[in-house]
């Protein structure tokens, strides 16, 4: 027979366990546990066993233990967990990849019926088709304004109907109808609310970012730094190439308008003094691009020209 512990002993044991986990782990997932049953939670523990530990408990106890542990160890970073402990939440301590652990947690969802007074987490749509209910059950459909017809002695729903919208409370009629149809519209499991990693707290959406997303965001940040640097004339590594090019343009403009010159400016001045050099420079390029066309045209002309007839081909003239 397992020994019984008093409430004080249970609190001491819980505090010791939580403090030990805070020492051993630097990555924590804060999860919501609304409508999660004990059997379902046990399956989640088994699925995560190895590199992760699930800890549930009262928020007041967790907050108290975190504060005391922070004072004892001087680790103030863990105090960032306290504002996250709101509602029915739990902690998943892990040493594995945060994305993989969150995906593993999401697998353990079970279907649940629509209970009266429950806030719908998703839209509930009743699909069209035969319900298998006898015609005496049409009153349920009439109350909810669901179009039906009698087909072969059973009630058939004609069109899909949005029965409950996300965020609305489930009414008694909706719950009764869904129960009769055998529809379990909701699914519940642990939902990751926040991620704690070495003192930093961020949204779980960050875990879904790919390398391409990070590169895109980095490039956007670099462009913003470049724009700001150019606007305030403050040199940065990102803006340096643009600043050099702009400076070169300014020096070149001064050289063109004055007698001051330098090798690259001499070439520009030469082009400006004799604009025909632009056309000369363009001829080889145009010739290279269209060189095959004239050759083909000449060949085509040769084919179209009729062959000249010679009077001396056969050794006599036409009238001989």
UniProtKB/TrEMBL annotation:
Annotated keywords: Ribonucleoprotein, Ribosomal protein
Residue numbers spanned by region Disordered: 291-320
Residue ranges constituting the Large ribosomal subunit protein uL10-like insertion domain according to the UniProt record: 114-183
Cellular component terms per the entry's GO annotation: ribonucleoprotein complex; ribosome
Protein name in UniProt: 60S acidic ribosomal protein P0
Protein family: Belongs to the universal ribosomal protein uL10 family.
Signal peptide from the UniProt entry: none
Organism: Forsythia ovata
InterPro entries: Ribosomal_protein_uL10 (IPR050323), Ribosomal_uL10 (IPR001790), Ribosomal_uL10-like_insert (IPR040637), Ribosomal_uL10-like_insert_sf (IPR043164), Ribosomal_uL10-like_sf (IPR043141), uL10_eukaryotes (IPR030670)
Top-level taxon of origin: Eukaryota
Role according to the record: Ribosomal protein P0 is the functional equivalent of E.coli protein L10.
Coiled coil: none
Subunit comment: P0 forms a pentameric complex by interaction with dimers of P1 and P2.
């Amino acid at each position: 027979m397992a020994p019984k512990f008093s409430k004080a002993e249970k609190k001491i044991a819980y505090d010791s366990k939580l403090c030990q986990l805070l020492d051993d782990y630097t990555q924590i997932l804060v999860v919501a546990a609304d409508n999660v049953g004990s059997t379902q939670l046990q399956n989640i523990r088994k699925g995560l066993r190895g590199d992760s530990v699930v800890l549930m408990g009262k928020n007041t106890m967790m907050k108290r233990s975190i504060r005391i542990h922070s004072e004892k160890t001087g680790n103030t970073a863990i105090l960032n967990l306290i504002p996250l402990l709101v509602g029915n939440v739990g902690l998943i301590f892990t040493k594995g990849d945060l994305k993989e652990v969150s995906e593993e947690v999401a697998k353990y969802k079970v279907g649940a019926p629509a209970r009266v007074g429950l806030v719908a987490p998703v839209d509930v749509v009743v699909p069209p088709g035969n319900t298998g209910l006898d015609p005496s059950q049409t009153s349920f459909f009439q109350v909810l304004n669901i179009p039906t017809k009698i087909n072969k002695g059973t009630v058939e729903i004609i069109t899909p109907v949005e029965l409950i919208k996300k965020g609305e409370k489930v009414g008694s009629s909706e719950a009764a109808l869904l129960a009769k149809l055998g529809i379990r519209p909701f699914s519940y499991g642990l939902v990751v609310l926040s991620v704690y990693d070495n003192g930093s707290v961020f949204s779980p959406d960050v875990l879904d970012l790919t390398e391409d997303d990070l590169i895109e965001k980095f490039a956007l940040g670099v462009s913003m730094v470049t724009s700001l640097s150019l606007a305030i004339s403050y040199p940065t590594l990102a803006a340096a190439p643009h600043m050099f090019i702009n400076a070169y343009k300014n020096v070149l403009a001064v050289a063109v308008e004055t007698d001051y010159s330098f090798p690259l400016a001499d070439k520009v001045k030469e082009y400006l003094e004799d604009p025909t050099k632009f056309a000369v420079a363009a001829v080889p390029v145009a010739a290279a691009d269209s060189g095959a066309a004239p050759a083909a045209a000449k060949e085509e002309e040769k084919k179209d020209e009729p062959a000249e007839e010679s009077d001396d081909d056969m050794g006599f003239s036409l009238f001989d």
